C-alpha cells in the first residue's frame, strides 16, 4: 500500500511501526482522543506522551476528530499544527431519520411500562466511559423521581464491577443492562434523556446519533463533547464525575417535556457537520493529496522542519 492509516491509541502505535518496518511510504494516524486522561498518574502520561512523540517522527499526517484534541496534541508536543487536520468522525444518518417507531410497543418489548421515563446510555463498558458515575447519578435521580428507569446498552470488561455497584446502591430493579444490540436507532428514540458520563473522549458519534433522533443530552464536558453539545441549546454539559450536577440536569429535563422537545429539535438541526458523507469526502481529499506526485507532504520518517 501507498498509505497506511491507523486509529485508536494501541493500534496507532503498533500499526504505524508495522507500516514503517514494512516500507509503507505514507502513514496517517487519526486521534479519537488520547489514551490517557488527567486522572491518570503523571508517570503513565509521561510514558504515553513520550511514545507518541517518538512515533510521530514516522508519521506523515495527523488527523483529529475535535479541535480540543488538536490543541491537546500540540500542547503535548506530539504533532505540529501544519501536519494536523480536523476531520469529524462521521455518522450514517439514514438509520436515524424518518423512522416511524411505536414507542409504546418498543417499551413493552423491553419489558417497560408505556408511562416509564427512561434515561439511557449506549457505550462500551470500559474505563473511559465512566459508567460508575452513570449509576451514581441514577441513584440520585431515583431519590427524587423513583419512577425513572435507566437503560445501559453495551457490554465489556467492567460489567461485573457495574453489576456489583448496582447491588450496592440498591437499584437492581431500576437499571437494565441490555448488552450489545442492533436496534440502537430505536432505543435512542425510547430514551427521554441520554446521559453520557465519559472521563475522556475524542468526539463520540453516539451523541450525534442521539441528536438525530431528537433526544436531549446531558454529558460530561471533556475533549470534543463540547463541539457536539452546546450547553442550554441542545443539551447540558457538566464537569466529569460531578454526579450532583448530572442528576440535577437529568431531573430538570425529565420534569419539563417542552424543554426536552426544544433541545431535541435544536440537536437535529445541528447534526449536518457530522455526516459520514462529509467525512468520506475529507478523507478522500487527504489521500489524494498525499499520493499526488507534486505533494510536498513529508513521507514517513521525513519530519517537518523543527519537529
Task: Explain what this protein looks like in three dimensions.
The chain is an alpha/beta fold and 307 residues long. 41% of the residues lie in helices and 15% in strands. It contains eleven helices and ten strands. It has helices at 9-21, 42-56, 67-75, 103-109, 131-144, 159-169, 184-190, 205-212, 243-254, 257-269, 276-291; strands spanning 3-7, 26-31, 61-64, 84-86, 117-122, 148-153, 175-179, 193-196, 217-220, 235-238. The strands form two sheets. The chain has a six-stranded parallel sheet, sandwiched between helices. It has a four-stranded parallel sheet with strand order 1-2-3-4, sandwiched between helices. Helix 5 (131-144) packs parallel to helix 6.
Order of neighbouring strands in the sheet with most strands: 7-6-5-8-9-10
Q: Report the sheet-strand fraction.
A: 15-25%
Q: Mean pLDDT across all residues, rounded?
A: 90
The amount of helix comes to 40-55%
The helix-strand sequence is EHEHEHEHEHEHEHEHEEHHH
Please tell me how large the radius of gyration is.
Answer: 21 Å
Largest sheet at a glance? 6 strands, parallel
Low-confidence parts, pLDDT < 50 over ≥5 residues?
Answer: 303-307
Individual helix count: 11
Task: Tell me the structural class.
Answer: alpha/beta
Number of strands: 10
The rough form would be described as: globular
End-to-end Cα distance, whole Å, is: 26 Å
Amino acid at each position: 500500500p501507498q498509505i497506511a492509516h491507523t486509529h485508536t491509541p494501541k493500534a496507532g502505535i503498533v500499526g504505524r511501526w508495522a507500516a514503517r518496518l514494512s516500507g509503507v511510504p505514507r502513514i496517517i494516524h487519526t486521534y479519537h482522543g488520547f489514551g490517557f486522561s488527567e486522572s491518570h498518574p503523571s508517570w503513565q502520561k509521561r510514558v504515553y506522551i513520550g511514545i507518541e512523540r517518538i512515533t510521530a517522527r514516522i508519521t506523515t499526517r495527523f488527523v483529529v476528530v475535535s479541535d480540543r484534541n488538536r490543541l491537546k496534541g500540540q500542547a503535548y508536543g506530539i504533532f505540529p499544527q501544519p501536519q494536523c487536520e480536523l476531520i469529524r468522525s462521521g455518522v450514517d444518518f439514514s438509520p436515524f431519520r424518518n423512522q416511524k417507531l411505536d414507542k409504546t410497543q418498543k417499551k413493552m418489548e423491553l419489558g417497560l411500562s408505556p408511562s416509564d421515563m427512561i434515561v439511557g446510555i449506549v457505550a462500551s463498558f470500559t474505563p473511559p466511559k465512566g459508567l460508575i458515575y452513570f449509576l451514581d447519578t441514577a441513584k440520585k435521580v431515583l431519590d427524587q423521581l423513583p419512577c425513572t428507569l435507566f437503560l445501559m446498552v453495551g457490554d465489556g470488561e467492567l460489567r461485573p464491577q457495574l453489576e456489583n455497584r448496582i447491588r450496592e446502591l440498591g437499584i437492581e430493579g431500576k437499571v437494565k443492562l441490555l448488552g450489545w444490540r442492533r436496534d440502537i436507532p430505536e432505543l435512542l428514540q425510547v430514551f427521554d434523556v441520554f446521559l453520557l458520563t465519559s472521563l475522556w473522549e475524542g468526539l463520540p458519534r453516539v451523541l450525534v446519533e442521539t441528536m438525530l433522533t431528537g433526544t436531549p443530552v446531558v454529558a460530561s464536558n471533556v475533549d470534543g463533547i463540547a463541539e457536539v453539545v452546546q450547553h442550554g441549546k441542545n443539551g447540558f454539559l457538566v464537569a466529569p464525575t460531578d454526579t450532583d450536577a448530572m442528576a440535577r440536569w437529568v431531573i430538570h429535563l425529565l420534569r419539563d417535556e417542552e424543554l426536552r422537545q426544544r433541545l431535541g429539535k435544536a440537536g437535529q438541526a445541528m447534526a449536518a457537520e457530522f455526516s459520514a458523507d462529509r467525512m468520506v469526502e475529507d478523507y478522500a481529499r487527504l489521500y489524494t493529496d498525499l499520493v499526488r506526485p507534486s505533494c510536498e507532504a513529508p513521507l514517513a520518517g521525513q519530519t517537518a522542519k523543527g519537529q
